[in-house]
Amino acid sequence: PVFLIAAILMSGVPTITSRVGGVLPGSPAERAGFREGDRVVAVAGESLWRWVDLETLLRAPGDAALGLDVERDGQVRTLELVREPDSAGNFTDSGLSWHAPAARVGVSAR
């Protein structure tokens, strides 16, 4: 058991980075121009690299429009994400995901 615990501690804790795994169609993120593979490096000028930090900043109170600095193809660009509040005034899901969206399986209507 000692070796197992040592191996776990030496391997480190996995951290989900701020790389976008998926963008929901029709979402504020899609309208802002986000793409799968983008890496968010800052929100409103505040640097970040962990997904949990990104989620916290996207749900924080403030202006609906946020400037997000995104690294894409080796260049950093700023995308404006306009967050949408729910009936209670809290910002809803922006449509960004750290994982790819689930595939839809079915028969299309014609």
For the biggest sheet, the summary is: 4 strands, antiparallel
Low-confidence runs of at least 5 consecutive residues: none
Shape: globular
- Strand line-up of the largest beta sheet: 3-2-4-5
Broad structural category: alpha+beta
Question: Which SSEs are present, and which pair or pack?
Answer:
Layout: H1 2-11, E1 22-23, H2 28-32, E2 39-43, E3 46-47, H3 51-59, E4 65-72, E5 75-82, E6 96-97
Antiparallel strand pairs: 1-6, 2-3, 2-4, 4-5
Question: What does the model show?
Answer:
By secondary structure, the protein is an alpha+beta fold. It is built from three helices and six strands; from the N terminus they run αβαββαβββ. The protein has helices at residues 2-11, 28-32, 51-59, and strands spanning 22-23, 39-43, 46-47, 65-72, 75-82, 96-97. The strands form two sheets. It has a four-stranded antiparallel sheet with strand order 3-2-4-5. A two-stranded antiparallel sheet has the order 1-6. A hairpin with a 2-residue loop joins strand 2 and strand 3. The longest helix has 10 residues, at 2-11. It is globular, with a radius of gyration of 17 Å. The chain starts with a helix and ends in a 13-residue tail after the last strand. The mean pLDDT is 85.
